Amino acid sequence: MKEAHIDADTNVTIHDVPTPKILDPHQILVNVVVSGCNPKDWKMPAGMLVTIGSCPNSGDDIAGD
Predict the structure, then answer these.
(1) Residue 6 domain boundaries
(2) What is the model's pLDDT at position 47?
(3) InterPro entries annotated for this entry (predicted)?
């Protein structure tokens, strides 16, 4: 699976990482086909948005199966 890392200068690097294992029957795994980018996606790493800074994964705007 691919994972994007965004640093404080908003440089993006793509990494290959293992697909997570689902261990809880209340969780699902979504195969993301397309994703979007919003202003919060680059404002938070740049330090311009602190309201969701404590959220480890605020990703959204995806389409998949």
Answers:
(1) 1-57
(2) 66
(3) GroES-like_sf
List the structure tokens of 27: 């969780």
pTM for this model (two decimals): 0.53
The residue type of 38 is N
Domain count across the chain: 1
CA dist 27 and 14 (Å) reads 25
Tokens of 44: 């938070």
Q: What is the pLDDT of residues 11-57, one digit of tens each?
A: 889 999 999 899 999 998 888 888 877 777 667 666 666 665 566 55
Structure token digits, residue 13: 């690097």
Amino acid identity of residue 37, one-letter, is C
